[in-house]
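Blinded run. Sample ID left blank on purpose so nobody reads anything into the name before looking at the predicted structure. Input follows.
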Amino acid sequence: MKKTDITKLSFDPFEKIGKEWMLVTSGDMNSFNTMTASWGFAGVMWGKNCAVTVIRHSRYTYEFMEKNEYFTLTFFDEKYRKALNVCGSISGRDTDKVKQADLTPVEIDGSVSFKEASLVLVCRKLYAQDMDVQNIIPEHRKWYDNDAVHKQYIGEIVSAYVKE
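Blinded prediction complete.
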């Protein structure tokens, strides 16, 4: 991976996050978890380039997000869609889903990403808060009928890497 300036990238969050998906990973090489996500944002907050991800308390990755200062958002080429499906359908509590997805974890700026990545954003948590279902407009509360609300994490993008 080659370190790059995030402001020099052509990054369409609607395509990258919403359609191609990403892995949200937190922890270090000794202990980490990753999960597939298709909800999130990228933009500027408090004068910093930031990314926002949301994670339900029930997800194993939530425990790692709570314990660690950094997390990564990792994007892949389409040929890794099956790996993203694996990482989004089984829990890291019960099995080694990274092995099942045939991904190779790598250390990156004190956090974890994957060798197969096409783009990695390393983020430092700036803010975290549980969403309040009462503040969600009624038509979108359906997302929370049978599951807890998300916790949102705003992270400053401290470094970005692209596949060489």
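Unblinding after everyone has recorded impressions. The chain has one domain: 2-162.
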